[in-house]
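Good morning C.,

I know you're traveling, so I'll keep this short. The sequence:
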Amino acid sequence: MSRIKLTKLPINAVDTSKMELVFQDNFDTLDMAKWCHMYNDGVVRNAAYYVHDNAFIEDGNLVLRTNWQEEGKNGRGWYTGALITHNKAHGTTEAMSELFKPFVNTYGYYEARFKAPECIGIWSAFWLMPENNFKNIDLKDGTKGAEIDVMETLYCYKHSNKVTGHAIHIGGYGKNLKSNGSKLVTVNDLYTDYHTAGVLWTEEGYKFYIDGRCTAVMKDSNGTVSKEPSYMLLSNEVAGYKMVEGRAKNGMKSWNGNPSKNDKLKNYDFIVDYVKVWKL
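The tokens, ready to paste straight into the viewer:
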């Protein structure tokens, strides 16, 4: 997959002065009116237990921690955390509370400031999902919804790569899945300094940004753009299937490396300073 170097691109940040700021969280506290946990406490996804304790506030940042626990409350294994702004798919306790106010939006500019963890088989992401979760729709119609990966630390197991990327997925996650990915973006200090990642989503398409530099202009693989209201997700994923590290469902090696190669005495933190959304 080809790459582009971030510093070779011109700075052309999105002008939000004429947009309406409709969502903002600076993570002074963990505001459970704005977010809910992706799953109920202890649910297994890929090769990790998703637990609420691994999503917390520290020094004015959201920390999504991934770590190996020999004597974890759900057993030996990887533990991680993830937050979303609308839990129609999973129906966690927090999402069903009176406090939680789901946030969905369509066209606008979405941005997060973050610091990614340097690790193998563990990747951080800021992404959007359609409110319909690809259910009961025409899966061949890209306007009915898309997974929009604003930022994903792809192939971070190759530490020298220091790359992130963007992607649009349509058609659900079965045989109808179609994906369109950007070139990989080399960010020299991806794991040691803060960066911003954003997407300007309009009727014409998706423009992706890292640190105010436009890194990709895309539509989905059908050449269309989603019209479906979507919610936001922040996650730190662990490669594997049903707690088997580094293996996909078909038994093949995971595309993003094997987490068993990490130092299991360390924490791997996806740190988020803020998330903001402006509506067109």
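Safe travels,
E.
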